[in-house]
Write a structure and sequence with these properties.
The longest helix has 25 residues. By secondary structure, this protein is an alpha+beta fold. Helices cover 19% and strands 41% of the residues.
C-alpha cells in the first residue's frame, strides 16, 4: 500500500512539473511592467473573413489581475464620443502582439473602478515622468 502511494505521488509530481513547463513556454517575454493608472496601447490581431490586421486600443489601466502568470489580465478603459469602453485583455494571449506604456501615473489604489463615474478634474491622476525605451 505504501509503495503504491509513493509511486502515485511521484507520478503526480512529474505531471505537475510538465504542466508548469508547458505554461512557462507560453508566457511572453519582454513585456513592460504594467500598473494601474498607466495609459497603455494594446495591439491586438483581429481576423476579418480571410484577412488579419492589427488594431490598437489605447486607454487607461483600471485593474491588473491574476499576477504575472499565464492567466494575467488587464482592464483597459477609454472614452469614445462621451461613452466609456472597457476591454479585458489576457496579457499572454497569442492575439496580443504588443503592449506599450504611453504614460505613468501615481495611484493610491489597486483598482481604479471609481474612474468609471468620475468626471472632469476628479478623473485626473497625478503624472509621473517615464523614459521611453527608444529614446
Amino acid at each position: 500500500m505504501e509503495e503504491e502511494a509513493k509511486t502515485e505521488a511521484l507520478e503526480q509530481e512529474t505531471v505537475l512539473k510538465e504542466e508548469k513547463g508547458i505554461r512557462e513556454a507560453f508566457l511572453k517575454q519582454g513585456l513592460p511592467e504594467i500598473k494601474q493608472g498607466d495609459t497603455v496601447k494594446v495591439y491586438q490581431k483581429i481576423k476579418e473573413k480571410n484577412k488579419e490586421r492589427i488594431q490598437a486600443f489605447e486607454g487607461q489601466v483600471l485593474a491588473v489581475k491574476h499576477g504575472k502568470g499565464i492567466n494575467a489580465t488587464i482592464t483597459v478603459r477609454k472614452v469614445i464620443g462621451g461613452i466609456g469602453v472597457e476591454k479585458i485583455f489576457p496579457v499572454h494571449a497569442p492575439s496580443i502582439t504588443k503592449i506599450e506604456v504611453e504614460k505613468r501615473t501615481k495611484t493610491r489604489r489597486a483598482k481604479l473602478y471609481y474612474l468609471r463615474k468620475a468626471k472632469g478634474r476628479k478623473a485626473k491622476l497625478k503624472m509621473e515622468e517615464i523614459e521611453k525605451e527608444g529614446e
